[in-house]
Design a protein that fits this description.
13% of the residues lie in helices and 32% in strands. The protein is α+β, with helices and mostly antiparallel strands. The protein has one domain: SH3 type barrels (Roll).
């Protein structure tokens, strides 16, 4: 697990606000949603993981420094 600075954590929380739509680019987990799956951000936890409700029903978080997702639509 990677350690995240307070500044980086704050930046993640500003970029991945609840309601933001994201697309999965990379996740190294046997239960991961397929690459390209879209979902809605629920929030960012204290270790920098982006909590997502994926459209396929999965609830796996995007792990800081390990997995990757991109914003496809900002929250208003």
């Amino acid at each position: 697990m990677r350690v995240i600075s307070k500044e980086r954590l704050q930046a993640l929380r500003e970029r991945f606000k609840p309601g933001t739509r994201v697309e999965l680019l990379k996740m190294d987990d046997v239960q991961a949603p397929p690459i390209g799956t879209k979902g809605t951000v629920i929030g960012v936890d204290d270790i920098g993981s982006i909590m997502v409700h994926w459209d396929n029903g999965s609830g796996l978080s995007v792990a800081y420094g390990e997995d990757e997702c991109k914003v496809v639509a900002d929250h208003d």
